[in-house]
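Sat 14:20. Reprocessing the chain from the morning session after the first attempt stalled halfway. Input below, unchanged.
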Amino acid sequence: MFRAAGLLGAGALLLFVLALSIAVGAKQLSLTEVLNGLTDTGSPSYPVVHEMRLPRTVLGLLAGAALGLAGGVMQALTRNPLADPGLLGINGGAAAAVVTAISFFGVSGYTGYIGFAFAGAAAVSVAVYAVGGGRGATPARLALAGTALNAALISYVNAVQLLDTASLDRMRFWTVGSLARAEDGTNVQALPFVLAGILLALALARPLNALALGEDSARALGSRPGLTRGAAIVAVTLLCGAATAACGPIVFVGLMVPHMVRSLTGPDLRWLLPYCALLAPVLMLGADVLGRVLGRPAELQVGIVTVVLGGPFFLYFVPRRKVAQA
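Finished this time. Tokens:
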């Protein structure tokens, strides 16, 4: 009952933050202006809401849900409470692939980015798993492999930006993580990939719960550990690839939200993952709104705000959490 009521409360909080994201910006809108802007084509606030605020809010909703669920799945898969798609290099792989596409192949727009983002995310997922020891991988090895690959990928992205000054301006807002250039077309193209990733992640809740008991116990319960791991990597690739292609590499969302949710739901992924899907967009959109308020008359990009919030959070939990051993 408590967890069900909490899920309803999380939904209500998400609705509040969605409204806040539409109302707050360079031009402050009242609740009446927001409602008029949504429904009345003759309202002065209609262009502001439909051309700027609404696409940005929808992108924050999709990307937040994707990154939050990806973080929850990664932490369950690696049995590492500090796992995160950004920390394990998956977002970095997608970013490196997209930067390569921009600089060397002249690719532009979400349609062009998405294929490269998926390829980069999938390649790094496989590389981290292989370098971490394959079937014998431990959470600690996966974390070390991901950190090393992520550092190399970040260096590569920075090097490409410095060497290709013509593409630097096009890449600089994307690589820091931003919702500012959201468009309806981007959201429509991202939606199928995010929905597929969300459905697959939610379907994996029971198998991942079984896998947390150990491979032998999982098999005894009818689960197939190899298939579960493969499906989890596909889900994370879909979620991270779609989110990174749309708004750039944003870290710490997938780390912070599962931690906060776990204190409410416990380790049961049947509850944890739905909570993540609702509360991660709250964090993403809240950080975006905070960046708009603090950076006036300009704005701080959402990727910067999540790093500022996530860095101290990570440092707080590192000495207090034991990394699970396989």
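The two ends are 33 Å apart (CA to CA).
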